[in-house]
Design goal:
single chain; globular; Beta-Lactamase; alpha+beta; 39% helix; 5 strands
Length: 172
Amino acid sequence: MKQGITPTSVEKVMREDDFIVSKTDLKGRITYGNRIFMEFSGYAEGELLGTQHNIIRHPDMPRAVFKLLWDTIQAGRECNAYVKNLAKDGSFYWVFANVTPSYDKDGKITSYLSVRRKPKASGVKTAGELYRAMLDAEKRAGARDAIAVSTKILTDLLAEKGISYDELVLAI
């Protein structure tokens, strides 16, 4: 349960032409959110601005996925991911996210931009199954080792398939 929010089984499904856009500072605090972001998250602009982006993190999401995402964008590379988000009313919505660093004129990362669109059903199914296995491993391992054991599940799968994480999420 997050900030008093109890997740429900109610799903909000993005429309084909929806794009959820948000921008954060280097610490992950929201500096911009478009109206579609507010619609799906259920938060007003004033509730989002200045708040950590993980305000919409669903408890079904493994911590290792967010570590991978943050490691990737902090290294200056874009990251694509299937993400299950938690709305203020407890409902959830899946997105296909593209997160990219933004740079100043000197090439220094100044912020992060995330654009999310309606995910493919096949991707949600595959990601959902993978994330359940990762999350189960995180719970069994406990807080101290959660990310390591969950990351191993993901890296073993990628090694078995001979592909990168980005290749996986773009293929499913």
